[in-house]
Specification:
By secondary structure, the chain is α+β, with helices and mostly antiparallel strands.
C-alpha cells in the first residue's frame, strides 16, 4: 500500500477543539469577538463578519457571512446583502494589496449537494487566483500547496485594512 503524508501540525488545536464547538463555526466566531485573532476573523461590521477559511482552496481564501444564522439569500434583508457586497469589494482590495492575485473566484453554495459544508449559515467564498495556480501537486497527488501561513497573512491584511479600507464600509 502506497502511503502519502502531508504534515499540517498547526491544525491540531482546531481538531482538538471540535467537540467543544457548536455545529456552526460561524456562529461560534460571531459569539466570541474576544477570540477573533485565534479564529482568524478579520473584520466585523454591524451585519456581517469576514474570516479566513480554515480549509482554503488557495492562499487568502476568505468567508463573508451575515451575523444572523440564515441559510439562504431569500432570508437575508437588503441591508445584510448590501453590507456583504461591500465586504466582497473591500476583501478584494486588501487581498490585492497584500498578495497580488491575478483574479478572484467569488461564490456561494446552497445545500450539501451543491457543495455547502455549512448549509445552515449562508456565506460567500472569496478565493484569490493566479495564472497557472494549478500545479503538479494538485494534478499528480490531489494536494494543494498553500504558500503562506494564515496567521502571517492575517496580520498583513489586518494592517492593510486599518490603513486603507474599512472607512469604505
Amino acid at each position: 500500500m502506497d502511503s502519502k503524508n502531508l504534515w499540517a501540525p498547526w491544525r491540531m488545536p482546531y481538531i482538538q477543539g471540535l467537540p467543544e464547538k457548536s455545529p456552526c463555526f460561524l456562529c461560534d466566531y460571531i459569539r466570541t469577538p474576544q477570540q477573533d485573532r485565534d479564529n482568524l476573523v478579520l473584520w466585523r461590521t454591524k451585519r456581517a463578519v469576514v474570516a479566513f477559511n480554515r480549509f482554503p482552496y488557495n492562499n487568502g481564501h476568505l468567508l463573508i457571512a451575515p451575523l444572523r444564522h440564515i441559510p439562504t439569500l431569500e432570508e437575508a434583508d437588503s441591508d445584510e446583502l448590501l453590507e456583504m457586497m461591500k465586504l466582497i469589494r473591500e476583501s478584494q482590495k486588501v487581498l490585492s494589496l497584500a498578495i497580488h492575485p491575478h483574479g478572484f473566484n467569488i461564490g456561494m453554495n446552497f445545500g450539501r449537494c451543491a457543495g455547502a459544508g455549512l448549509p445552515e449559515h449562508m456565506h460567500i467564498h472569496i478565493v484569490p487566483r493566479w495564472d497557472g495556480d494549478t500545479n503538479f501537486m494538485s494534478v499528480c497527488s490531489s494536494t494543494k500547496v498553500i504558500s503562506q501561513s494564515m496567521s502571517e497573512l492575517y496580520e498583513e491584511l489586518t494592517r492593510l485594512s486599518r490603513d486603507h479600507l474599512l472607512p469604505n464600509l
